[in-house]
Specification:
homodimer; globular; alpha+beta; five-stranded mixed sheet; 60s Ribosomal Protein L30, Chain: A; six-stranded mixed sheet; about 290 residues; Phosphoribosyl-aminoimidazole Synthetase, Chain A, domain 2
């Protein structure tokens, strides 16, 4: 373990507060005045999280959408966001995209900070939400016998990224303007045993959910929904690519989801491997690792 | 108006939510479950907000302290912080300083995000607090006849910065490890008509308070507390330098502060100028302007 993983582990050692779950589980949970506050902070860096030259309106949208996706995975109702913004060369487009996203998701901008920097443009967003159901869905509640579901296909963001990288403007929507599953998250929260959003790749995030739940998850490769335009040869790429922001969740036996979703696997007693694809543990890269 | 000011104005135009006061007044105020949540987000950039080569432990301390100072100015009790961290070359020292600050102020790290960046190290911190008194102190409540106070001297951070820039290790504490006036802020909140922390220079921040209150403030230059080590010739520099994080506040006539503080002026009916130093409006630079 080195670099970012070591840093996060050291940060986690600081987080002794019982409310502090944010560094392990994407969101922090804080009880306040009878309400349960859900908090998340995500950063984006030029050239790392978006392409140099990409439309800053799309970057603003994605900054909002990825943070709201974390709230969606907790079944939370967004209360507002705070923006940390490094001034750049296309601030006007950023503001336009930010306004579009905030209006679309009906979320107020509560405050923030802007700075000048001689270097790479770096953005941060803090999103606050209020839990609509307790217990708050987490990654750790899946039990053997549960079914595993996903709210939509994976791979569309990958195709969008590839189109954008090739200079296309069509078919880039899934990558540039992801839509967090806020309505689905709130509807599912009372039913699920575990839930998370898929940001780093279906295989990797499923393994994380299985490990957090001390279980094994067996995925049926033929049941995973893929975009109609995906060439069959790209199926493996699609399930290890991130940025789709669908919800991955588990349901008790016999429970059906209350929104469109595909059953993609089952939860088993923990075996030798936390993740099976078909009948074998998948080999190679599972997704985007923060190494 | 251009650059950062224009960007902030455009952001403010997005902040139509009645709870959104953050971009105009440093902190956002959000009512939730009978509690009043105070939120602030401040960023720091290498080479802009700290010296290249400066001890990252001090940078971490200051990142925490400056955000908590915003909470102090609202009389808020800190609930926790979320960190946005760009990995750099001295992450271990950062963690050490972060732990020192969080332990010192008894504030939990709730969550956050870490990223890799090819460029300048950029940090963000979101601090959450709970108001201890309502109405929340703001910049806009000063009334003619009120007295104007400050919790401590200005200029020590400037001397510390100059010592540090010259390669000294002694006498740098005020710049490197500012202490937010949390206890004082909570004690003063029920008494003040207006309050803010001084981050950008006493003259500039006093003018902001006067303008927000639609009043004129007359400061007595001989009453402003300065560090004993400050050469008399540097008095003007001291009152236009920032980073001291003392609290500036106004009290109704006849009210005395409940913590050590110096009376430095009086609030007048708004005249031709929002700020008088002695009997005349100060000329030249008043502080650090986010131009």
């Amino acid at each position: 373990m080195s670099g970012e993983a070591a840093f996060v582990a050291a940060l986690q050692a600081l987080s002794l507060h019982p409310a502090a779950r944010g560094l392990a589980d994407d969101c922090a949970v804080l009880e306040l005045g009878g309400k349960t506050l859900i908090l998340t902070h995500d950063m984006m860096v030029e050239g790392v999280h978006w392409l140099v030259g990409q439309d800053l309106a799309d970057v603003a949208w994605k900054l909002v959408a990825t943070n709201l996706s974390d709230l969606a995975s907790k079944g939370a109702e967004p209360l507002g966001v705070l923006l940390g913004y490094t001034l750049g060369t296309d601030d006007t487009r950023f503001i336009e995209g930010l306004a579009e996203a905030l209006n679309h998701f009906n979320v107020p901008l509560l405050g923030g900070d802007t700075v000048r920097s001689p270097g790479t443009q770096t953005l941060g967003l803090t999103a606050l939400g209020c839990a609509t159901h307790r217990p708050i869905p987490s990654r750790s509640g899946a039990r053997p016998g549960d079914t595993v579901w996903i709210t939509g296909p994976v791979g569309a963001a990958m195709l969008g990224f590839e189109a954008l990288s090739a200079g296309a403007t069509a078919h880039t929507q899934a990558y540039c303007r992801p839509v967090p599953r806020l309505v689905e998250g709130r509807a599912l929260a009372p039913l699920v045993t575990a839930m998370m959003d898929i940001s780093d790749g279906l295989l990797l995030d499923t393994r994380r959910l299985a490990e957090a739940s001390a279980a094994t998850i067996a995925l049926d490769p033929n049941a995973i929904p893929l975009p109609p335009s995906l060439p069959p040869s790209r199926a493996r790429d699609a399930i290890t690519w991130g940025d789709d922001y669908e919800l991955l969740f588990t349901l008790p036996p016999g429970t059906q989801p209350v929104c469109p979703a595909s059953q993609i696997g089952t939860v088993l007693i923990r075996g030798d491997h936390p993740l099976l694809l078909g009948n074998a543990p998948p080999e190679g890269r599972l997704g985007y690792e923060h190494s």
